[in-house]
Amino acid sequence: MSEAPGVGILGTGSYLPSRVLSNFDLEKMVETSDEWIRTRTGIRERRLAAGGEFTSDMAVAAARRALEASGTRPEDLDMIVNATITPDMPWPSTACLIQEKLGAAKAFAFDVSAACSGFLYGLTTAHNFILSGTASRALVLGAEKLSSIIDWKDRNTCVLFGDGAGAAVLGPSERRRVLSVHLGSDGGAAELLCMPGGGSRRPTSPETLAGGLHFLKMEGKEVFKFAVKAMAAAAEEAIAKAGLKPSDIRLLIPHQANIRIVEATAKRLELPMEKVFVNLDKYGNTSAASVGIALDEVEAQGLLKPGDKVALVAFGAGLTWASVILEW
Ligand code: COA
After folding, report:
1. What are the pLDDT tens digits along the chain (328 aa)?
2. Known catalytic residue: 96?
3. Whose CA is nearest to atom 1 of ligand 1?
4. Is the distance from the beta carbon of residue 224 to the nearest atom of ligand 1 less than 6 Å?
5. What's the CA-to-centroid distance between 147 and ligand 1, angstroms?
6. The 3-state secondary structure of the chain, one letter per residue
7. Domains and their CATH numbers in the chain
8. 39 CB within 6 A, ligand 1
9. For ligand 1, is residue 257 a contact (CB within 6 Å)?
10. pTM for this entry
11. Fewer Cβ atoms within 10 Å of its own Cβ: the N or the C terminal residue of the chain?
């Protein structure tokens, strides 16, 4: 069993923008069909933020719910870690903008960039800051306005993603306790999923704009192959570190990218789909927000009871992968 007792999730929250974009809406935008999207991905619809609604706004809405659920006042937070690949601005960090909007004056705040693994990288970071005594109460966020970096003319990518935010407050607790974590990265495959323009390598210019380098680019098939292996392997590592077997897991909460990836992961872990939480049909892939939103829905639906073992697992651009095991 892990040597890390006593840090747990005190409360969760999420926020989804109200605008729904269905597969049928997408049929009018690119050459695709509801049938193609559903059978290849499992996605039926996704949410889109309003024009004047930014990543920090969605994060703040999710954060307020998590703070309330945990009985925490913003001024009691020591730390805010926000996972995103769609910050309000390249810098300063969106976490600092969130801190200001919440009025969390005592907290230090920073972003983590681990794409779809971001929420679990953030959770692990906060967990370790609390274990080390540097912070006592931390707000972990995953928030994305992916619609701002999607090429709405590219059917290979535009059908997959959505906007939203998930949040968790972490602190000393024996409930919903972190039992173990496992993180990994492979920068050798960075080009498979990236936004090539707008950084120091290719600063924004008429050429980068003309080439669409400010949009998300993806080698879908390669990412798919990687995801199937990485998700199961990451979960297996974290489960073993917690001294458990996959069959001990009551609920798997995976990154919500594609139902085929989720099903393949469950199969490798020999977990029946009744033990796997899925909401990607409603929201698509919300990257760093995905696991946080799912965790909040699991809590709201009362799917778990004290003592249940839960595996959170994700993979994403970087490439990155992550898994966290909780005891509810
Ligand atoms: N509608 C209709 N056709 C589409 C389409 C769409 N929205 N998107 C792509 N196609 C076409 C392609 O152009 C290609 O056509 P071609 O063979 O004539 O070139 C064909 O469909 C590809 O089909 P297929 O090989 O069956 O696709 P797939 O099974 O690999 O599924 C993805 C495609 C993108 C759904 C899948 O590869 C995937 O999910 N990859 C991982 C993506 C992901 O999760 N990214 C985020 C990581 S965090």
Report:
1. 444 459 999 999 999 999 999 999 999 999 999 999 999 999 999 999 999 999 999 999 999 999 999 999 999 999 999 999 999 999 999 999 999 999 999 999 999 999 999 999 999 999 999 999 999 999 999 999 999 999 999 999 999 999 999 999 999 999 999 999 999 999 999 999 999 999 999 999 999 999 999 999 999 999 999 999 999 999 999 999 999 999 999 999 999 999 999 999 999 999 999 999 999 999 999 999 999 999 999 999 999 999 999 999 999 999 999 999 999 9
2. no
3. 32
4. yes
5. 19
6. CCCCCCEEEEEEEEECCCEEEEHHHHHCCCCCCHHHHHHHHCCCEEEECCCCCCHHHHHHHHHHHHHHHHCCCHHHCCEEEEECCCCCCCCCCHHHHHHHHHCCCCCEEEEECCHHHHHHHHHHHHHHHHHHCCCCCEEEEEEECHHHCCCCCCHHHHCCECCEEEEEEEEECCCCEEEEEEEEECHHHHHHEECCCCCCCCCCCHHHHHCCCCCCEECHHHHHHHHHHHHHHHHHHHHHHCCCCHHHCCEEEECCCCHHHHHHHHHHCCCCHHHECCCHHHHCECHHHHHHHHHHHHHHCCCCCCCCEEEEEEEECCCEEEEEEEEC
7. 7-173 (3.40.47.10), 180-327 (3.40.47.10)
8. no
9. yes
10. 0.96
11. N
214 catalytic per annotation: no
Work out which ligand 1 atom sits closest to the CA atom of 218: 45
Atom of ligand 1 at shortest distance to CA of 314? Answer: 48
Question: Which residue of 156, 161, 219, 320 sits with most ligand 1 atoms within 8 Å of its CB, as the best mutation to test the pocket?
Answer: 156
| Ligand 1 contact, 285 CB (< 6 A) | yes
158 catalytic? Reply is: no
